[in-house]
Amino acid sequence: MPAVQGAAKARRFFDSIAPWYDRINARIYKREWLERVRSEIRGPRVLDVGVGTGFTTGHLADSVGIDLSMEMLRRARHRGSLVRADFMMPPFRGSAFDTIVFAGSFYYMPNPRDAAGIAVDQLRPGGRVILLSPATLLLAGFVRVFSPREYREIFASNGFRDIRYERLNRAACLVIAEKP
Ligand SMILES: C[S@@+](CC[C@H](N)C(=O)[O-])C[C@H]1O[C@@H](n2cnc3c(N)ncnc32)[C@H](O)[C@@H]1O
Fold first, then answer.
1. How far is it, in rounded angstroms, from Cα 110 to Cα 171?
2. Which atom of ligand 1 is nearest to the CA of 13?
3. In terms of residue numbers, what domain contains 82?
4. Reported pTM
5. Could you tell me the distance, in angstroms and rounded to a whole number, from the CA of residue 9 to the centre of ligand 1?
6. Ligand 1 in contact with 66 (CB < 6 A)?
7. The domain spanning residue 92 has which CATH number?
8. Could you report the per-residue pLDDT of 60-79, keeping only the tens digit for each?
9. Mean pLDDT over residues 18-22, rounded?
10. Is residue 2 part of a domain?
């Protein structure tokens, strides 16, 4: 069982590391991963789940960042709106977004299939999810690491199509899936 599992633990964990988060991130997060995620974003209406300090979508005018951790949100540099909420209980009407980004956050969702089901409800037809996630089992003691097959199953079982899994390096992967 990974160390940070469930909403309450994730919130406490990120509240506690928020003051150092950007410095930690700068050491482990590769600039080209960020560019890869950004290059796949479509449409003006973007939801960034686990927006944290605004690393991925902070430059977009119309994006919405959602996060459990008030301490992360307090430090966020973000042009769009910020909402403190749990993605598993989203405070938005359905079909509201063109793209939903989970940059380093999908594996904190308590049930990945349910999270993909919520994502499909929140996307307009033709919209997409983009995940940046760990890909090496060396990290499995800290966070959940899904295989390409598990990602396909999680998203296909919720009606997504064109599910792409791209290995970015030994540590990280990009997953993209489209809502028909
Ligand atoms: C590793 S950080 C990623 C932050 C940012 N996306 C980035 O790329 O730097 C994960 C974030 O997901 C948030 N998070 C975890 N579970 C969540 C949930 N159920 N709903 C909303 N945010 C969540 C955490 O509070 C944390 O800020």
1. 22
2. 25
3. 7-178
4. 0.96
5. 12
6. yes
7. 3.40.50.150
8. 999 999 999 999 999 999 99
9. 94
10. no
